[in-house]
Design brief:
The chain is an alpha/beta fold and about 290 residues long. It has one domain: Glycerol-3-phosphate (1)-acyltransferase (3-Layer(aba) Sandwich). It is built from 11 helices and 8 strands. The strands form 2 sheets. It has a 6-stranded mixed sheet with strand order 1-8-7-2-6-3, with helices on both faces. Strands 4-5 form a two-stranded parallel ribbon. Strand 4, helix 5 and strand 5 form a beta-alpha-beta unit.
């Protein structure tokens, strides 16, 4: 039965994606052909509407194929006409479906920081490009030692991506851990948290520096899977029976809205301490959620 559910859910996801991609690709082609950036921006509301419709379509097949108990708590005053920086713990690719299902229609359309390599993903790579998702290319310390001319390029990429968001309310989404939690990664990192890996503050700092005056606040999302984080295939098979989501709106300290994260050591330390406090609070919330489920 689980295998059949997975096959049906996969087909519905594929059909929903391909259907909306027909319209999205048409606008993407038009966007490529328009020579003036200001004119291209006029297409963004239509592109976002299509993406939202795709998410609602996903919610429909999830309702048909999944028998899941959702436990979601949201603030009452989230605004689709504001700008937010969204953070979340990361355990599975299912997190993305949970975030979209939870926040669609509550905040502006989510735009994720993505690794540069993901632009090559068939179908979805073009979708993410058309929707102005920020593609990040991070270089290792060893690579930068050999190629110092690349230093700071990822920062400039972040700034350029965030500039596109100034013209339309947007929720910029970042998984601060930078990777999915696993037992092996946890053992390697030895983080000071029970349920989280160490957060990386750099990408968040660059985005807030680029748009600090526009971001209303941080939307802090905590996802807890009482039965363990599922794989995507397990999710499609309907094996994820429970999902707990807690969403909180938190202020961005005024002192951190503008600064030089790379060049100002005092500012960098202050920003990192703020992020670490956010992560300590999140870890404590996960501890409490785990205790409440047992």
């Amino acid at each position: 039965m689980a295998l059949l559910t997975g096959v049906i859910a996969s087909l519905l996801l594929a059909l929903n994606t391909l259907f909306w991609c027909v319209f999205l690709f048409s606008l993407t082609l038009l966007k490529l052909l328009i020579p003036v950036a200001r004119w291209r921006q006029q297409l963004n509301p239509a592109l976002v509407w299509i993406a939202r419709a795709w998410i609602y379509g996903n919610a429909a097949w999830m309702h048909l194929t999944q028998r899941m108990n959702w436990d979601v708590q949201l603030p009452d005053n989230l605004d689709q006409n504001s700008w937010y920086f969204v953070i979340c713990n990361h355990q599975s690719w299912v997190d993305i479906m949970v975030l979209q299902h939870t926040l669609n229609g509550q905040v502006p359309f989510l735009k994720f920081f993505l690794k540069q390599e993901l632009i090559k993903v068939p179908v979805m790579g073009a979708v993410w490009w058309a929707l102005d998702f920020p593609f990040m290319k991070r270089y290792s310390r060893a690579y930068l030692e050999k190629h110092p001319e690349k230093r700071g390029q990822d920062i400039e990429t972040t700034r350029q991506a965030c500039e596109k968001f100034r013209h339309m309310p947007t929720s910029v989404m970042n998984f601060l851990e930078g990777t999915r939690l696993s037992a092996a990664k946890y053992e390697h990192q030895q983080p000071p948290y029970r349920h989280l890996l160490k957060p990386k503050a750099g990408g968040m700092a660059f985005a807030i520096n680029a748009m600090g005056s526009q971001f209303r606040s941080v939307v802090d999302v905590t996802i807890y899977y009482p039965d363990g984080a599922p794989t995507y295939w397990e999710f499609l098979q309907g094996k994820m029976s429970r999902c707990v989501v807690r969403v909180e709106e938190k202020p961005i300290p005024e002192a951190l809205r503008q600064g030089d994260y790379e060049g100002d050591a005092a500012y960098r330390l202050q920003f990192q301490q703020w992020v670490q406090q956010l992560w300590q609070d999140k870890d404590q919330q996960l501890i409490q959620l785990a205790a409440a489920q047992h």
